[in-house]
C-alpha cells in the first residue's frame, strides 16, 4: 500500500488594482459667473411678463409640465455639458410625474422647484441663498419656473450659436425657444401623371 503525498494548494491573493477614476469631460457652463464673483440672474423673476406670457400661463395651469421640461434639460446639461436636442425634450417625463404625484399626495411639489433653483444657482454662480430660493419657489412658482427656463436657455442658445443680443425677447412657449422647431414644415407637393401609353 503506497501513500501518495499531495502538494498543498497555495492560494495567492489578487494584487491591488488602481481605483477607477471617473472624469467628466463636460465643459463648464458658458454663462457661469467667475469664481468668487456671483452674478445676478440673466432675467428678473417677473421677466415672464416681458414676452413670455404664454409660458407663464402654462406654468400657472400645468406646472408639472414646465418642471418636467426644464428639469430634464438641466439634468442633461449637468451630465453631458451639452444642450439637450429639442426633439428629445419630453412634454411630460419622469420629473413631471414625480412633481404631480408629490403635489397630489402632499401639496408641496414646489419643493422640487426649490431644489432645482439651488442647482441652477450653483451651476451658473448666481447670487442668492436658500431662504430666497424657498420663498420664490413657494410664493411665485410660475415666475420662478419660467426664470429657470430662461436661465437654461441662455446656455443652450450660446451652444447653438444663437445671437445672445436677442435674449431679451422670449417666445411664449417652450417649443418656440428651440431653433429646430421654429422652421415651418415644408410641404412637398406631389403630382401624379399617367404613364405614357405603350404599343
Itemize the secondary structure elements and their pairings.
Elements: H1 53-61, H2 63-80, H3 94-105, H4 110-124, H5 130-139, H6 141-160, H7 179-182
Structure description:
The chain is mainly α and 199 residues long. Helix content is 44%, strand content 0%. It contains seven helices and no strands. Helix 2 runs parallel beside helix 4 and helix 4 packs across helix 5. The longest helix has 20 residues, at 141-160. Residues 20-24 and 162-193 have low confidence and may be disordered.
Which descriptors would you attach to this protein?
mainly alpha, 0% strand, 199 residues, 44% helix
Q: Give the SSE order as H and E letters.
A: HHHHHHH
| Span of the ends, CA to CA | 104 Å
The whole-number mean of residue pLDDT values reads 75
> Helical content, roughly?
40-55%
Based on CA atoms alone, the radius of gyration comes out at 27 Å
- Low-confidence runs: 20-24, 162-193
Largest sheet: none
- SSE-based structural type: mainly alpha
